[in-house]
Amino acid sequence: MHNQGSIGVIIGNRDFFPDRLVAEARVEIIDLLKKLKINAIMLDTEATKLGGVETFQDAQKCAALFRAHRDEIIGVLVVLPNFGDERGIAETLKLAELNVPVLVQGYPDDLDKLDVARRRDSWCGKISACNNLYQFGIKYTLTTKHVVHPTDPSFTKDLLDFLGVCRVAMGLRKVRIGAIGARPGGFNTVRYSEKILQRNGISVITVDLSEILGNANKLTAQDTSVQQRLQKIRDYAPTGRTPDEALIQMAKLDVVLTDFMQENALNATAIQCWTSVQKNYGCNVCTSMSIMSESMLPSGCEVDVTGTLSMYALQLASGSPSALVDWNNNYANDNNKCVLFHCGNWAKSFLPDIEISTAPILGTSVGEENTYGALSGRTPASPLTFGRISTDDPRGVMKAYIGEGKLTDDTLKTFGNRAVAEIPNLQNLMQYICRNGFEHHVVMNASKTAGILNEALGNYMGWEVQLFND
Q1: CATH code matching the domain that covers 6-172, chosen among 3.40.50.10940, 3.90.180.10, 3.30.420.40, 3.30.70.2750
Q2: Which of the four, 191, 223, 316, 437, has the lowest number of CB atoms within 10 Å?
Q3: Residue 2: its pLDDT value, please?
Q4: What digits encode the pLDDT tens for the residues 437-450?
């Protein structure tokens, strides 16, 4: 697994319960985290009694340890081998000031060990611990089962999902998105509020398209940077009948876009595509956007900044690329299927039959010869998580919907980037999208991560989230 940050571990204890439960839990949790290749930050057994947290002095020690590792801790796991000290846990998190997601786990009791010497009472202790976190205003996540042994497969899934929640919540709080060019005149649908985004930690860095195109036009085919990028494009996808001049145009644009992203430390970009690049420069920017999205630097069209933000959120949840798509067509008369489409900028992961082509619809107004760079390809059957984040400007809030379905191999004769999606209660979803003023763009990701996104966006970001799950 890629380096995903560390998690802090707090093992709760309460003095009138057997101490050996704490020692055993410590070994079991360390074993599990090692097996999952998760780096843990926790107190040594010498620092406090058995390395647990019970008294306020313990809380101070644990908080100091967490603060020293603030830059790497993306979440905290609270382990309750017994009832635990409800205040010690909350005080630790308060003093540490990490502001990261927290997962609370409690051990189950054995029916034949409910005597004074061996009972745990974590069932009750977990309720008390959560009550204190709630009083302190600390957000937390629960395991699927109220009490669960670390060796239970459901806890492994809870833990891995929790890491996804941490990646999404911590990633969105510091994301930087480039808005390249003005919103196309005909696309009121992609309006958004930079100020609402900023209040949520999301920075938007704007640049005029003339600067990008002007810098691209200063480059020549002989420039080393252009030659390198040209090779990268040729290595990325078959070029079909795309002429060399168009490939050079695309390579120059790609060099300038990459420079702009690096100068501004951007995580993602939203680019004005619909018709200015074609009319004033002479090619489509789709291939560059696809390469960026495949490299985990998501790029969306039509300056759809919140669409690009949605791509980034779904990518953080799954660890795989996202694609921005149109909710485009019905699929025959099947009420739970629809066609997802875009001219052609989806990441290569979605397109086993990828080819650099043109954008025929756009070509009808700007000349098809000015639309080279759009990709052609059909996405095969796979799992599907879909989602959309928006700013609801009149109400001053962030809102989102997310859900799961699947992509199918149903027949589809058309061009561009295309897929057929099967989504339970699709008609209800479309009613919801239309009633609540959501955009015609949605994001797809080949994963099952709606639960992770619901927890991260709803609980930790505090946004309004509607979940559509099968």
Answers
A1: 3.40.50.10940
A2: 437
A3: 42
A4: 999 999 999 999 99
